[in-house]
């Protein structure tokens, strides 16, 4: 009897192991299904109705730039791919109050993309809302009044990087598509620019982060306009006073 019991127990154990092995392997012997990876092509474009300033929208460019609106305030910042979709960085906004407007998009921390729908999450992984893709092309405004969206003539003299790209030092990056980004040496900033009739560059819709940096010179955050002379950019406030002179570095 003891020998028979041993045979029965051994046979049952082998059967259990065989069943466990079958349950743990997908049919056909294939390994675990791979998770689809979000690519830059899935991200770049316009999400939401950028023509309606009272509705939330985002415009994401190939170089990792971001502009948009939460339906009240202008937004600017950066984005990058991560394992689950995209992560937003240095998101800054103006600070206007719009009664009755849900400004949920200003709290965006990351997003996932499935087809033509972007789902936006806050920093606590709470779902904030969704945006539908409305164009594969980022919504941009012509720079300096150039009809082809590129800078020409006098505007071209302003295009480039001014000052060091070190985030702890004042600098500006003026792009041909009408965007400007930079730092006052403490806070990141971004917005739009256009060329005035007198050849002066005017900054518009500027937004910035609100970090405190005791002892730092943050005068550049009062920028209103700029002039250029060769490889020197002179930044002025709204009274025409000089805030900074920045050398061209790129």
Brief account:
Keywords: Signal. The chain has 250 residues and is mainly beta.
Can you characterise this structure?
The protein is mostly beta strands. The chain folds into two domains: 40-135, Lipocalin (Beta Barrel); 143-247, Lipocalin, CATH 2.40.128. The protein has two helices and 16 strands. It has helices at 2-24, 40-43; strands at 45-47, 57-60, 65-69, 74-82, 85-93, 110-114, 117-121, 127-135, 160-162, 170-174, 179-184, 188-195, 201-208, 225-229, 232-236, 242-247. Strands 1-2-3-4-5-6-7-8 form an eight-stranded antiparallel β-barrel. An eight-stranded antiparallel beta sheet has the order 9-10-11-12-13-14-15-16, with no helix packed on it. The radius of gyration is 27 Å and the shape is globular. The termini are far apart. Residues 1-36 and 141-152 have low confidence and may be disordered.
Strand order of the largest sheet: 1-2-3-4-5-6-7-8
Indicate the CATH class of the largest domain. Mainly Beta
Looking at CATH, which topology of the largest domain would you report? Lipocalin
- What's the overall average pLDDT, rounded? 79
Count of structural domains: 2
Largest sheet: 8 strands, antiparallel, barrel
Question: What general form does the structure show?
Answer: globular
What share of residues is helical? 10-25%
């Amino acid at each position: 009897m003891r020998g028979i019991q041993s045979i029965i127990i051994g046979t049952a154990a082998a059967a259990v192991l065989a069943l466990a092995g079958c349950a743990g392997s997908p049919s056909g012997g294939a390994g675990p299904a791979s998770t689809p990876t979000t690519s830059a092509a899935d991200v770049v474009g316009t999400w939401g109705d950028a023509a309606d300033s009272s509705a939330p929208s985002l415009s994401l460019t190939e170089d990792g730039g971001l502009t948009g609106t939460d339906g009240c305030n202008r937004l600017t910042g950066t984005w990058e791919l991560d394992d689950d979709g995209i992560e937003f960085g240095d998101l800054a906004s103006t600070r206007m109050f719009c009664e009755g407007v849900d400004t949920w998009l200003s709290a965006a921390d990351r997003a996932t993309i499935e087809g033509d729908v972007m789902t936006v999450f806050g920093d606590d992984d709470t779902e904030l809302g969704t945006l539908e893709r409305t164009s594969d092309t980022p919504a941009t405004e012509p720079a300096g009044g150039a009809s082809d969206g590129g800078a020409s003539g006098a505007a071209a003299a302003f295009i480039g990087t001014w000052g060091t790209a070190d985030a702890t030092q004042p600098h500006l990056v003026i792009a041909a598509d009408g965007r400007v980004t930079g730092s006052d040496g403490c806070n990141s900033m971004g917005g739009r620019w256009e060329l005035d009739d007198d050849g002066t560059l005017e900054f518009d819709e500027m937004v910035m982060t609100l970090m405190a940096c005791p002892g730092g010179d943050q005068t550049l955050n009062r920028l209103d306009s700029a002039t250029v002379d060769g490889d020197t950019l002179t930044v002025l406030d709204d009274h025409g006073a000089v805030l900074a002179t920045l050398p061209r570095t790129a």
